[in-house]
Design brief:
Helices cover 64% and strands 4% of the residues. With 520 residues, it is mainly alpha-helical. Strands 4-3-5 form a three-stranded antiparallel beta sheet, with helices on both faces. It has a two-stranded antiparallel ribbon with strand order 1-2. It starts with 9 loop residues before the first helix and ends with a helix.
């Protein structure tokens, strides 16, 4: 159609561009854009850029992403709201959320899309606390009469706008990641008031948020009250039961879902994610054979073809239960077009638990080629060697890691207190209560020893003596967050701590003993 148009207007060019961009034909979109600016007499406008920018972000070949920003400014569209929204999105997806924030801060006409884009940007970059602070800011901009929280006014028209279902769907995973239950409940209340809670996507995000904050009952209640549920809603609940160690219930939910036994009798066809949730439930409950059976029948019963991450789940399931050799053999049966990174990682993790140097080395050999910049592969392999007493080899892996310039992501924990989310980094002394927290952990560790706690110093990477290792364990971010919770919340209340990385064995044991001592 486009080729047949004799007199092309800007709108015609934009229509095809938008079509390409929306369907993620990014190369074509960019090529058409270049054609437009070089061959036609038409100048691109704001609509053009709103289509081109998302294509630029996704297109790996196109490297000069800042260049297009400069081009837009030169063309005089730098202050256009739609263009600014698209630019913010672009920079956030490039991991440069600081630049998005600068653009956001300078905007004089923000709309709901600007707010949602900025909040999404923070979430995409893992800046959950920033996302929650933005939501808080939206709240503070309430109407003069104070009748409604969550209201902002567009500067130009004075028309109020409120966080919509997109805002809520964006922020709720942030609450889940930070275990910020108070904020999550506030959003739930807002959703009910604004009649957004019936929305299937918002409802699913609420179920997920409650489950990840440890409130399985609330998650289940929200699920039951939803008038419409889709496969995502079911997946979230199945995942939640699995996560809480209730494998039996998770599998029962799976059966109900596929047989149409839910309260509104809908038959839901499971998808790839459903199987991930099911395998995770099997893993938590240690049901290896049940998991294997579901894996081998998934295609025949529900038409879901196993992907790389399904294999990885099964490798994990077998490996954790000690069937490391079988796990290795399963990887060898994987079709060559599937991504094996996750499967090898699972195998390496299993080798750490069961101290298998032989298979660990095989897995690590593959991972060092496939993902040379991921710190955890080196750390795991080094730990496997250390626990087998192979110090030289352990040192060799660490040296290799250093040579490659690979850095471990710093451990970070969050705890919600009042309106704020407090953040702790490993060994961090920047928190105002830092000294107090370390002293408290010190006294606590004496009581822990009486309860039989023995520090597991194998969790410490560095080459230091044992006493120093113990001190370093005490500085793990989750310990600081737990201490903060103990010192700042009333006795008997639940302490919820969220973390970016997996908890180490030692902190896991310590948390159990602390929980027993202080009765929390
Ligand atoms: Zn730890």
């Amino acid at each position: 159609m486009f080729d047949g148009v004799v007199r092309r207007t800007v709108a015609v060019w934009n229509a095809l561009l938008a079509g390409y961009a929306r369907n993620e034909f990014d190369d074509q979109a960019l090529r058409l854009f270049v054609e437009m600016i070089s061959e036609s007499e038409f100048c691109p406008n704001a609509t053009t850029f709103a289509s081109v920018l998302p294509a630029c972000v996704r297109c790996k070949v196109f490297s000069d992403k800042e260049g297009i920003h400069g081009y837009i400014v030169k063309r005089g569209f730098g202050k256009d709201k739609y263009v600014q929204n698209a630019l913010m999105d672009m920079y956030s997806r490039m991991g440069r959320v600081e630049i998005s924030k600068t653009i956001f801060g300078r905007m004089n006409k923000r709309d709901i899309v600007s707010w949602n884009t900025m909040i999404t940007g923070c979430i995409v970059c893992g800046r959950y606390d920033d996302a929650l602070n933005l939501l808080h800011e939206m709240q503070r901009r309430q109407g003069e009469d104070g009748s409604d929280t969550f209201v902002d006014y567009e500067d130009d028209g004075g028309v109020p706008f409120k966080p919509n279902s997109v805002t809520l769907m964006t922020v709720l995973p942030g609450c889940a990641a930070l275990a910020a239950l108070g904020k999550g409940k506030e959003i739930h209340a807002y959703a009910v008031k604004q009649k957004l809670a019936m929305d299937v996507a918002v409802g699913s995000a609420l179920v997920d948020m409650y489950a990840k904050c440890g409130c399985l009952n609330l998650a289940s209640r929200v699920f039951d009250q939803m008038p419409i549920r889709n496969v995502i809603t079911w997946n979230v609940l199945i995942m939640a039961y699995g996560m809480h160690g209730k494998g039996e219930e998770a599998l029962e939910l799976f059966r109900i879902m596929t047989a149409g036994g839910g309260s509104n009798r809908e038959v839901i066809r499971p998808n790839e994610v459903t199987y991930i949730a099911i395998f995770a439930a099997c893993r938590r409950s240690g049901w290896v054979d049940e998991g294997l059976h579901l894996f081998h029948t998934m295609k025949a019963s529900h038409g879901v073809e196993p992907r790389g991450d399904h294999y990885a789940c099964l490798v994990d399931l077998l490996g954790r239960s000690g069937r490391v050799k079988e796990a290795y053999e399963l990887i060898n049966t994987m079709p060559s077009n599937l991504n094996k990174v996750d499967a090898w990682s699972s195998l390496l993790g299993a080798c750490r638990i069961h101290q298998s140097v032989e298979f660990g080395e095989i897995a690590a050999k593959h991972l060092f080629v496939l993902e040379p910049n991921v710190a955890s592969h080196y750390v795991l392999m080094s730990n496997i060697y250390s626990s087998a007493g192979l110090w030289d080899q352990a040192l060799g892996v660490r040296k290799k890691m250093k040579e490659m310039g690979v850095r471990k992501e710093p451990g970070c924990s969050w705890i919600e207190h009042g309106d704020e989310v407090h953040k702790f980094l490993s060994g961090d002394a920047s928190h105002p209560q830092s000294k107090e927290l370390h002293e408290y952990l010190e006294t606590l560790s004496q009581r822990m020893r009486k309860e039989g706690y023995v520090p597991d110093i194998s969790c410490v990477l560095h080459n230091v003596d044992d006493e120093e290792k113990e001190t370093m364990l005490c500085g793990h971010s989750e310990r600081l967050a737990i201490a903060f919770g103990l010192l700042n919340t009333p006795p008997g209340t639940t302490i919820r701590v969220a973390k970016n990385l997996r908890v180490c064995n030692d902190c896991h044991v310590a948390a159990k003993i602390i929980s027993k001592i202080v009765d929390r």
